[in-house]
Fold this protein.
Amino acid sequence: MAHRIVTLPGDGIGPEIIAPTLELLEAVGEFEFEQHLFGGASIDAHGTALTDETLAACRAADAVLLAAVGGPKWDSTDPAAPRPEQGLLGLRKGLGLYANLRPVRPLPPLYGTSPLREEQIEGVDLLVVRELTGGIYFGAKTRTADSASDLCEYSVAEIERIARRAFSLARTRVSSVDKANVLETSRLWREVVTRVHAQEYPEIELEHVLVDNAAMQLIAGPRHFDVILTENMFGDILSDEAAMLTGSIGMLPSASLGDGGAGAQATPGRGGPGLFEPVHGSAPDIAGLGVANPLAMFLSAGLMLRHGLGLAQEAAAVESAVEGALQAGLRTPDLGGDAGTKEATQVVLDRL
Ligand code: IPM
Ligand code: MG
């Protein structure tokens, strides 16, 4: 039976990188794609970044593939104006996708492209496990004429489930990142992670790292890390930093998962389909020029095949085609070359 995928191209370079990704997927399996407007494109058409209909379609799908949202057209500091990002946050929350996995594995052909020296990034293979539906992103917000506030809140249950996810994905060590010297939520985080570790995963090494120090260590010695477990906003910031180890933010895929496993039935509030998207944004500065790097989107489709649909072999085929293309010299402008999106797609397709 064909896998049912909802695709959300979103804004900016989104449509340009989704289209070739569908071509790639069609080369490895049978899929039914259902496309919906999302983000700024949905605001323009419907006045909201995520309609009830799109959310319902996502819930009913086997997996959701998303490109990127946002752009200057919808940038506003007016708290009442609709924002494309609200669609993304609403989708993560609406699908219960509390675990965001961002694997950072610089590929040997790109060692020379990273701003760090080759001997620093050689062999780096880390996973950022970011809590995705809590913290300051989702706390109450207030705004008056002369002040504003964002509440950062975490419950024990929210910390337990993301900690379990991180320990179960770790090979050797979990580095739990917080700001326990200042924040109350971080002190609770540290306590809960320590308890989950002692009771359920004593065979994995656990260390606690303050977020400022983690930012430094990611550059000073990235090979040290196996799994980085952290809360929503720290994970947002550290994953962009970690992306540069791979040479370009245009290389980093991500998977957002709830409690549903591969092929799990979509039940609102109880897991359901995963969401797969590149870490990069909509790059409005290069939208429409045909030069966007589609590789993070391809690798996100790879994560969808593996984590969302249980198709490990197909996932490996996509990943090795991407690596093979880079090995053969493929470089989009963000990687210092001049290959456009079409050419990049063809080079990868030829290797599938
Ligand atoms: C990300 C993005 C989003 C986030 C934005 C677009 C809301 O930066 O997925 O990392 O902050 O989570
Ligand atoms: Mg981000």
